[in-house]
Amino acid sequence: MSDMKYLFLILGKKSRYLNFVCIQRKISIVLFIIMLIGGCSKKPHLSAQTMKPHHLSDGTFKNNYLDSILKPFSKFLKWRWTRKSPDPIRFPFAKNDPDYLKTNRSDPTLTWIGHSSLLIQFEGLNILTDPHLTQRASPVSFVGPKRYMRPGISIEDLPKIDLIVISHNHYDHLDRLTLEKIYQKQSDHPPKIFVPLRLKKWFEEIEIPNVMELDWWEEKEEFKGWKIHSVPVQHWSRRSLLDSNQSLWAGWVIEHPKFKFFFAGDTGYSEDFNDIRKKFNGFDLSAIPIGAYSPRWFMKQAHVNPEEAVKIHKDIGSRYSVAIHWGTFILTDEPVDEPPKLLEKSLKKEGIPNEYFFVMKHGETRSLEFLLR
Predict the structure, then answer these.
(1) Which residues pair with 8 in a beta bridge?
(2) Which of 221, 223, 229, 242 has its CA 20 to 30 A from that of 343?
(3) Contact 123, 256 (CB under 8 A)
(4) Which letter does DSSP use for residue 36 in this model?
């Protein structure tokens, strides 16, 4: 059955049973999906000379250990139409000290802004991961996932950012408004932004400069001895319905002689993490996603659950890990407070103390002095 026939079949059946308010809500989801069709570009084609195993001849990309991660649109509609969205929960909020963060150039710190956004301060460098500090993970302001926990720090209170890494182009990881505001705030000293292959063009179109794109396993030395590496993870990319996998997705290794950090971004579980361990021989700190994993029949290949997050922690040989990608947007079906609970159970099962894979409060700033011992 075609995707459109499937859609109309669902609409017909559901309309006989659902009340008008529920139908309105469902239709708004479909309209939101249809809106994503616009603004798509033609696929570029690669020559045989540039081909790598994860490059396809039509100009798109694939994962190392999975031929295709994309499911038919009909399955997406089936999930969205039959799902029961969990209720938001207000988690405890930790008030940080913006004045301290703005002036700090000596103390190593970690601040969780929410979702996959972290502020890392180390040896005078201010680093942001997948910065998202606005209200919706969406191309529009009136529909799409809305954050139920405010950002742990406002854009106005951010210190001057030196380095930003972007894992991929999904709206909960690549937020145009946040990036534009950061650039406007420090246009005299714009941050250096590292992105996966073929995502630089998106920044050029919105006139944000100082962007470097890297393919998997490529590296760049910046900032007096710091090295930035792009590494493979198992995921996909899309900003609309017709640009699937036209830009790459990646994890990032940020390396200093005193500190080795791994940012997984968003990923399913794969052998890529054993490959990363072989390349880098372990990490001081890793940021690993623990949320957006249910239902497993739909999410498993693209999003790890807490048990798999612990496997990644072990696979890559990380001394410490911090949980990300939870507690901010309702993206999937698990209760919003379930990921940290299951993480605790998985750590206990593996005999790993909680402090080695820790959960932070929104806005919490934690000293990283323990990494230097």
Answers:
(1) none
(2) 229
(3) yes
(4) T
Asked whether the predicted pLDDT for residue 136 surpasses 70, the reply is yes
C-beta of residue 70 within 8 angstroms of C-beta of residue 236: yes
C-alpha distances in Å from residue 100, one per residue of 126, 127, 129, 160, 321: 13, 16, 20, 12, 24
Over 50: is that where the pLDDT of 352 sits? yes
**What is the rounded CA–CA span in Å between residue 276 and residue 83?**
35
Q: How far apart are CA 56 and CA 246, in angstroms?
A: 10
Task: Please report, rounded to a whole number, the percentage of residues in the chain having pLDDT higher than 70.
Answer: 87
Q: Which helix (H) or strand (E) holds 311?
A: helix 306-315
Give me the residue label for tokens 């072990």: 314
- How confident is the model over 249-279, as pLDDT tens digits? 999 999 999 999 999 999 999 999 999 999 9
Task: Name the pairing type of β-strands 318-324 and 283-289.
Answer: parallel
Helical (H) or strand (E) element with 79: helix 73-82
CA distance 170 to 204: 17
Name the β-bridge partners of 214: 196
The two tokens of residue 88 are 């938001």
Which of helix, strand or coil describes residue 320? strand
Average pLDDT score over residue span 63-85 = 84
Q: Determine the Cα–Cα distance for residues 158 and 269; give it in Å rounded to an integer.
A: 33
pTM of the model: 0.88
Q: Would you state the structure tokens that stand for residue 221, as one six-digit string?
A: 């030395």
- Whether residue 131 is preceded by a cis peptide bond, meaning omega within 30 degrees of 0, is no
CA distances from 188 to 153, 185, 191, 193, 209 (A): 22, 8, 10, 15, 11
C-alpha radius of gyration, the chain, whole number: 20
How is residue 235 annotated by DSSP? Answer: -
- pLDDT, the chain, mean: 88
Distant-in-sequence, close-in-space partners of 263: CB < 8 Å, separation ≥ 6 = 118, 129, 130, 165, 167, 251, 252, 253, 254, 286, 287
Question: Does residue 44 carry a pLDDT above 70?
Answer: no
SS3 call for 299: helix
